[in-house]
Amino acid sequence: MINTENLLLAAKEAALDAGEIHLTYFGKNKEISHKFNEFDLVTNVDKMAEERIISVIHGHFPDHKILGEESGIHEGISSEYTWVIDPLDGTTNYAHNFPHFAVSIGLLYKGEIVLGVVYDPFKNETFWAAKDSGAYLNSDPIKVSEANSLKKSLLSTGFPYERAEILEENLKYFRKFVYEAQAVRRPGAASLDLCYVACGRLDGFWELNLAPWDTTAGTCIVREAGGKVTNFSSSEFDIYTKNIIASNSLIHEHMTKVIESIRNI
Predict the structure, then answer these.
(1) What is the pLDDT of residues 182-209, one digit of tens each?
(2) CA-to-CA distance for 60 and 74, rounded, in angstroms?
(3) Which residues of the chain have pLDDT under 50?
């Protein structure tokens, strides 16, 4: 197994630097544009933060490949390491000065998720984990909740910016879970949803139409905190799979059955 110590240090440095950029421009005028439609926003802060993350990572590991949300693939000499980064998860929240957003940096080694760092600069919370080393919030170990039924569970989800049929599909899941769970939230940053499952603030999370930069880091953190992450069919989660279920493990089967009940209609 690889030594993740220096890799983690680089990831945390990059995340903190990007978070500082977030805070510098938070609440101020920002350049806002649209990617695919009028709802899918990108700001100048997304781009500046991604440039800073890439600079830090390549400063430490110039041979590594990077997959960024805003700038795409940056090829490296080494094909074994791929960093997967979201410089500003929760851009819509950020654009509206809603204080719930994060930096997400994950690492694949030979295709396997081995490291994740998610930094919420507004709350000064750094969630991090490395394979087989546990999960942490700042310097404290974290673990998933012990809720063992949906009626005792707080869940979260998110909704896509495009493709109306996916929105309609998730509204069906949302409606079902509202009746089955204690409550359902929609905070607007998938990386933080995953971290909140990892530390027990949430008991489960599901979403459709996600990208690798939304889930790579958070998946590592959930797993290392004792949780479970799969796709909607209960198969082993792959970052290129667009749907995800993450839970404390105890309610995972219950969540899967609810989703299957809708998909089979």
Answers:
(1) 999 999 999 999 999 999 999 999 999 8
(2) 15
(3) 36-39
Identify the helix (H) or strand (E) that includes residue 170.
helix 164-180
Look-up of token digits 């791929």: 82
Residues 121 and 180 in one domain: no
Contacts of 128 (CB under 8 A, 6+ apart): 8, 11, 12, 115, 116, 117, 118, 135, 136, 221
Which residues face 204 on adjacent strands? 155, 247
> Same structural domain for residues 126 and 187?
no
**157 with 207: CB under 8 angstroms?**
yes
Domain boundary residue, one of 141, 172, 199: 141
Q: HSE-up of 58 (CA within 13 Å, CB side)?
A: 15
Report CA torsion sign: 50, 51, 55, 58. positive
Give the number of domains in the chain: 2
* Residue ranges making up the domain that contains 129: 5-141
